[in-house]
Amino acid sequence: MNTFDINNSIHAAAYKLAARHFLSSTHEDWEASRLFNAIESDEDSDDWLTCELDRDQVNPWVGIEASCEHVMLDPWVRLQEYIVGLAEDFIKFRTASIVPPASPSHRRRRELREGFIGDVAISHITIKISKELENVTLLDLGGVYLSCEGREYIMDISDSCWDIEDGCTEITCGLKTFDEDEIFEECPFDLTGEDLFSSSLKASVFVGDEEAVTEGEEMTATLFVERNGCTHAIELAFE
Predict the structure, then answer these.
(1) What was the pLDDT predicted at 102?
(2) Angle, nearest 10°, between helix axes 9-19 and 75-96?
């Protein structure tokens, strides 16, 4: 993307969605522009006094501030870079997944059982990297996109944790369905349980910022699902 515009409604929705991944505070009742300005503004801004009061209510992840201490960076600048970067990736991902407007997405979404595609339970994804990451937060993870013969399903990462063992990093992420008012409303969410086991299935996880992983290091992602008491692994490509 060339320009991120917080006054664009799609960009604003993507910004608020991305901010959830980097803040320990919640701001669901704020306009996206208010949150953007609270993070972006500095003492030279015309509305600094107002933005400063708002900033006092914004709590970034502790890891962001800690990572900036060693390189003498302003954590608020880094935070804004992370949020805008992930928001731009969400927007690009949204563009790639657009389907015709006639898609009955809202009706389908109301019929969904959280955590299920048909009779298949969606468990989690794991991402394995053949190095010990110093800062896992540099790896910005977006949604998981599944498609089969025109049918689609998109899930968002709801939480994550990581472990380091034998020089490798393993990240485990929970998954949830995007809410109706979020930016992937064009997705029909009509993938079936059988589609998950089809040879035509295309499955990927969106990684917006891979600067934490250098060339030559292996990174794999796997989606785990359950049906009839059995766990099945689905390999994910990287977008």
Answers:
(1) 37
(2) 120
| DSSP secondary structure code for residue 55 in this structure | H
Query: Using CA of residue 108, residue 113, residue 119, residue 121, what is the dihedral sign?
Result: positive
Residues 149 and 226 in one domain: yes
pLDDT surpasses 70 at 125: yes
Alpha-carbon distance of 236 to 145, in angstroms, equals 9
Return d(Cα 17, Cα 26) in angstroms, integer.
11
Domain identity same for 135 and 211:
yes
**Six-digit token string for 108:** 């389908």
What does the DSSP 8-state code read for residue 138?
G
Q: What is the pLDDT of residues 178-212, one digit of tens each?
A: 654 455 666 788 899 999 999 999 999 887 655 55
Has residue 186 been placed in a domain?
yes
pTM: 0.53
- Residue 66: C-alpha distances to residues 61, 79, 90, 184, 217 (Å): 9, 12, 26, 33, 25
Please tell me the total count of domains within the chain.
Answer: 2
Of 108, 107, 54, 98, the residue nearest 76 (C-alpha): 54
Check whether residue 73 and residue 142 sit in a common domain: no
Residues 128-178 have pLDDT tens digits of 888 887 766 667 777 899 999 999 998 888 777 778 888 888 888 888 776
In the Cβ-directed half-sphere of 171, how many Cα atoms lie within 13 Å?
24
141 and 83 in a common domain: no
Q: Residue 50's domain spans which residues?
A: 9-94
